[in-house]
Design a protein that fits this description.
Radius of gyration: 22 Å
Largest sheet: 2 strands, antiparallel
Structural class: mainly alpha
Number of domains: 1
Strand content: under 5%
Shape: globular
């Protein structure tokens, strides 16, 4: 690469450099998903705190960091999706990415995994389906969790006595990793409202001011904590929703800030500098804040910018990861389930590294099947539009042109999309959020 080309690549704007399909977002999402599995291996396999908890001065851990990262990328790409499509297609794409994979995972957990666990723990499945709709039953599990909110974590009291997590919490938990999907869905709804009210197109400053307001709330938490590391608890006012259950204002503010930060980067993409000095500086600021404190006020925005910078600066030979086959969402939704099962079988007795390896292998295999048989087939419907809406979605355009004109990236991480070579085109793909945590 010539000196001039290198200078242009390292000194430009987000609009110039993060375009087309040539970027490192797919690899970043995959690494975040694997980081979640590695982090959860500690509490699920050994009853310890998540990976990095003590190293990061008890401020956060690797799994929660992955949650934060997914919300940043999701905010950037899903805001881009909402700007380019109508409300109906936007909602359709979000639903196609989240629900098919989730629903199949819930079905497999309740009707396949749980009965097998019952057979092993009790020697029989007699009584397992005696009253499946009762609280704690397998069908009640499906009914409680189908809309992204986890209102029932356990099934029939299983895993409560045979896993380190169950013994520590005295509870039955099959898939605690699904907790944050309701916050992702909440952000989707907010973006949809901002899109339909033309805020994203005509009043983007509102999103900027919202991002600043959320950051000031985080800063207030940090200042009020009286310690440089910041708040150590997640205690906050909680409200209940009939669809998703309880939602914590703590997570709405912190995850909402990161989502809004990503959205702001997209809305002001022509003014956001992509600079190697800023990227390296963000990495240094993030590392110091994790080790010595101040992560929430210094590390969070630094981490957000670092992810975007890495998306641009990732070596081009790695840009293929996640472009056609994206397993990150599947790794997320299945990882916790299989780790709990393996922990109940006592497979953690061989140590942390072997348990991590087995966890990744199991999650990857499940993600592969989920992508091939569920997620990708569902995403092939992303451009389908009922005739009624096709005739009315964009007045003045012939029906055969409306689909192409309205086409936008699929919500799925790495979903197949037409190749875009022009440097000013948008990214034709959207991520799903993969966000577990304790």
């Amino acid at each position: 690469m010539t000196t001039t080309a290198a200078f242009v690549r390292s000194r430009g704007t987000l609009a110039d450099l993060l375009s087309g399909r040539s970027n490192g977002i797919g690899l970043i999402r995959l690494c975040l998903a694997l980081g979640v599995v590695m982090s959860h291996s500690k509490p699920l396999g050994f009853g310890a705190h998540d990976l990095g908890y003590y190293l990061f001065d008890r401020q956060t851990n690797v799994g929660t960091m992955a949650v934060y990262g997914f919300f940043v990328l999701s905010g950037l790409l899903i805001t881009r999706s909402a700007r380019r499509t109508g409300l109906i297609r936007y909602a359709w794409h979000r639903a196609l990415r989240i629900f098919p994979g989730l629903w199949v995972c819930l079905l497999i957990t309740a009707l396949v995994v749980a009965p097998l666990v019952a057979l092993r723990e009790r020697g029989t499945i007699d009584g397992f389906f005696a009253d499946p709709w009762a609280r704690g039953g397998p069908l009640a599990y499906l009914q409680a969790n189908w809309w992204t909110g986890v209102r029932q974590y356990g099934i029939d009291g299983l895993l409560a006595k045979t896993t380190p997590w169950g013994q520590e919490t005295n509870s039955s938990v099959f898939n605690g990793a699904l907790w944050s999907l309701k916050y992702e869905m909440f952000c989707y709804v907010v973006v949809g409202v901002l899109a339909v009210t033309a805020v994203l197109r005509q009043a983007r400053r509102f999103v900027l001011f919202l991002t600043i307001a959320l950051y000031l709330s985080i800063f207030h938490d940090w200042w009020s904590s009286g310690q440089f590391s910041g708040p150590m608890s997640q205690a906050a006012w909680t409200f209940n929703s009939p669809l998703v259950g309880g939602m914590s204002m703590f997570w709405i503010v912190y995850l909402g800030f990161l989502f809004a930060f990503g959205a702001t980067l997209d809305l002001y993409r022509e003014r956001v500098p992509i600079n190697d000095a800023l990227g390296v500086g963000s990495a240094v600021a993030l590392g110091l804040s994790l080790l010595f404190g101040g992560f929430f006020v210094i590390g969070l925005p630094a981490f957000a910018y670092l992810l975007i910078w890495l998306s641009v600066r990732m070596p081009r030979r790695l840009h293929w990861v996640g472009r056609k086959n994206d397993y990150s969402y599947g790794i997320y939704i299945y990882g916790f389930v299989f780790q709990q099962v393996m922990a109940s079988l006592g497979w953690s007795r061989w140590g942390y590294v072997p348990f991590v390896a087995m966890s990744i292998a199991a999650a990857w295999a499940a993600a592969f099947v989920s992508w091939k048989l569920v997620e990708r087939p569902a995403l092939r419907l992303k451009d389908w539009t009922p005739g009624f809406f096709a005739r009315r979605s964009r007045p003045g355009l012939p029906v055969e042109r409306q689909s192409a004109a309205a086409e936008e990236p699929a919500t799925a991480p790495g979903a197949p999309a037409p190749r875009v070579d022009a440097p000013t085109q948008e990214i034709p793909q959207q991520p799903a959020t993969l966000v577990p945590g304790r």
